[in-house]
Amino acid sequence: MVYAAVVLTVFLGDFFLKKHLETHLKEGGHRQICGGRIVLHRYHNYGAILDFLEKRPQAVRNLCGGFLLALGIAWAFLLRRKDNPGVLLGLSLLLGGGGSNFCDRIAKGYVVDYFSFRTPFPRINRIVFNLSDFMIFLGGILVAVTRK
After folding, report:
1. Which helix (H) or strand (E) holds 15?
2. Rounded to whole angstroms, what are the CA distances from 22 to 28, 61, 122, 128, 148?
3. What residues have CB less than 8 Å from 121, skipping those under 6 apart?
4. Max Cα distance, the chain (Å)
């Protein structure tokens, strides 16, 4: 049950952050927080990571759906075994984050991204993320380093 709670927490946390920013920030608008180190945006991403396949949103939706289905099957199988909590936590983060972004793609046709970092590196400054993106990244790392 702990792992299901992780999936739900990530999914709902990102859902409510997206909803809040969509209602309180104009599209294309931005606001600096944390002394300007983090910038809040309202950005609609029609593609995958870094706008990959931006012109083919249906292909992105299908790929994401297939990936989520495979992850869900692996997660359900490993839940029964409970022999690798690191992998289960990683898969839970991947499912929560991926599920949130996939629901955006189904309901809106795009993913809502809403923050970026201010760094000395201009290329990194242009990347806009959401909480789900970080959970997907963290989950992938956990799966990679804790799998047997």
Report:
1. helix 2-24
2. 11, 21, 25, 15, 41
3. none
4. 47
Residue 72 near residue 94, CB atoms below 8 Å: no
Neighbours of 87 (CB within 10 A): 21
Domains of the chain, by residue range, sit at 1-17+38-47+70-148
pLDDT in tens, 79-111: 888 788 999 999 999 999 999 999 999 999 999
Residue 26 has a pLDDT of 84
Q: What are phi and psi of 44, to 5 degrees?
A: -105, 115
Whether the model pTM is above 0.85: yes
Query: Which three-class secondary structure state does DSSP give residue 33?
Result: strand
